[in-house]
Amino acid sequence: MANPNGSIFKRCGCREPQTRRQLGNSCPKLRRKNGTWSSHHGTWHYRVDLPPAADGRRQEARRSGLPSHDAASAEIKHIQDLLAIPGSDSHGVGQIRTLILDALKAGDPLPDPAVVKERYRRRADLNPQITVADWLHTWLAGRRTIRRSTREGYEITIRMHLAPFIGDIRLDQLTVGHLDDLFDRIDIRNETIRRVRAGKDPELRETFKGQKVTSDAYKQRIRATLRAALNHAIRIGLITFNPASWVELPSGKRPKALLWTTERVARWQATGEIPSPVMVWTPAQTGAFLDHAETRNDRYYELYHLIAHRGLRRGEACGVHWTDLNLDVDEGSLTVRWQITQHGADTVMGAPKSDAGDRQISLDTDTVTVLRHRRSRQNAHRLSHGEHWTDNGLVFTEPNGAPLIPDDVTSHFKELVTAADLPPIRLHDLRHGAATLALAAGADIKTVQELLGHASIAITADTYAHILPELAREVAENVARLIPRQKTAPAIKN
C-alpha cells in the first residue's frame, strides 16, 4: 500500500472572488492568526490508498466533511482494522476493499470490524444484498394502514426474537433450518427462565429478572410476523420461497375458558389455584359483583354493568358516545363505533378492533335504566364543574368530563373483585361472562359471535362451546333447588 497511514487535511468551499476558483486548503480563514486551525471554518478530509484492484489499478478511500481531525483519524484506523481481517487472503482483501468503497460511495458509515470479522470467520457474504433484519424493518415501515397496537406488537417481536437470532442472515439464504434453530434457542431460553424461577440457577437471577417464558401461542405470533414479511418479499420478487410456512411448531391454541364452579372456588380458597388463564363467573357470581359495585355507588359501576351484560371490550366501553345510544325502554340499542386504546401512558380514540367489531347490539331494560342513571350522574358532574367541564360526548368519563384511562378501569376492577370476596377474573373475562349469560339464556353461537364482535364464529365456538355442559349442570342444580320437597328422596338401589 503506497500510503498505509493515509493523509488528513482541511478544506472549505470558499472561492476566489475574481476567478471563482475554489480555494480548498489554501483559504486564509482555515487558520487562526497564531497558525492553529480554526474550529469555525472548513471541514476535515482524509485519503487512504487501498490494495490495488485485480488489474493493478490504484484504489483510494476518501471521505470529506468530517467535523474534526480526530474523526478523520478514527475512520483511517477503522479502514486499517478492516483491511487487517483477511491477512494475506487476496480474495478476502478484495471483498473488504469493495465493502469499504461501497460504504464510502453511498455515504454510509464504515462497517463494524467486529461484525465483518465474524462474517469472514463464518465464510458468510461480507456484503449481503439485504439481511433479514433489514427487510423486516423495511417491511414494517411500509405497513401504513395497521393499528398502532399491531405495529408495536410487530416491533417487539422483531426486536426481541427475530432480529437477534436470524437478523444477520441474508434474506435470500434464509432456510427452515435457520428457523428451527431460532425456536430451539427460544426453548433453551425458556428452560433457563424456568430454572431460575425454581431457584436452580441463582447466578442468572439478575440476567433473567422480569423475563417471561415465550408461550406456544406467542411462538405462533413470531412465525406469523415473519411469514407475513416474507410473503411480501415474495410478492415483490426478492425471494421465491417462504421458510416460515414450513417450520413446525406446537399449535398454541387459545386457553379454554372455565367456569368458577363451587368445587373450583373451594380449591382456590384453599390453595390459591386458578385452573385456567381464562375464568368465567357464574350468573350468580356476576350478580354478586354488580350488587357490590352498585351498593358502593362505584364510579365505574355503569361501565362494568354494560360489559357484563353486553360483552363490550374494555376500550369499546370506554369509547361509547351518547350519540351511539338509543335509551328508549322498548327499543334500547347501542352502536359500537369507537374504542379507546392505551399505548403506554398515551390513549388513542379509534375504530373497533375489526370490521366485525363495528356492530349494533340490543339493550335490555335494566341496562337502559342503568345508562339513564349514568346520564343523570354525569349531568350532576357537569353542573358541579361548570366551565371546567370537558364536553367530549363520552358516556363514561372522569368527574371533570375527561376520557377514562383504560388501565385505570382495569386496576379498579381488580380492587373491586377483591373487596367483593369473589374468585378472581380479569376485566376481559367479564366480557366472557356476558357470552356465558347469553348462552344460559338460550342464545346460539352465531348470536353470541355477533354480540361480541368476533371476526370468526370459530373463535366464539373455540372459546365458549365447552362451557355449555358445565353451565347446563349449574343451571340444572339451581332449578333443582327451586323445587320444594317435603322429605329426602330415597337412596337409589343398584
Automatic annotation (TrEMBL):
Start and end residues of each Tyr recombinase domain: 276-477
Keyword field: DNA integration, DNA recombination, DNA-binding
Gene Ontology biological process terms in this record: DNA integration; DNA recombination
Region described as Disordered: spans on this chain: 48-71
Gene Ontology molecular function, alphabetical: DNA binding
InterPro entries: CB (IPR044068), DNA_brk_join_enz (IPR011010), Integrase-like_cat_sf (IPR013762), Integrase_catalytic (IPR002104), Integrase_recombinase_N (IPR010998), Integrase_SAM-like_N (IPR004107), Tyrosine_recombinase_XerCD (IPR050090)
Core-binding (CB) domain ranges (all copies): 126-234
CDD domains documented for this protein: INT_ICEBs1_C_like (cd01189)
Pfam families documented for this protein: Phage_int_SAM_3, Phage_integrase
Family, per entry: Belongs to the 'phage' integrase family.
Protein name: Integrase
